[in-house]
Amino acid sequence: MNILTFLIPVSLFLAGIGLVAFFWAIRHRQFDDPQGSAERILMKDWDDHPKP
User: Fold this and answer.
1) Which stretches are transmembrane (predicted)?
2) Coil, strand or helix at 4
């Protein structure tokens, strides 16, 4: 039972780190257009030759 006094704060700390990372990712637009690149490669407008 004494292990719970150690594990509960550790789990809350790790959850806090995950929450901060999630809000950081949202703020830095990491989730904008996640499938755009995957669909863009299938379009006919895709330029497979590099521009000179």
Assistant:
1) 6-26
2) helix
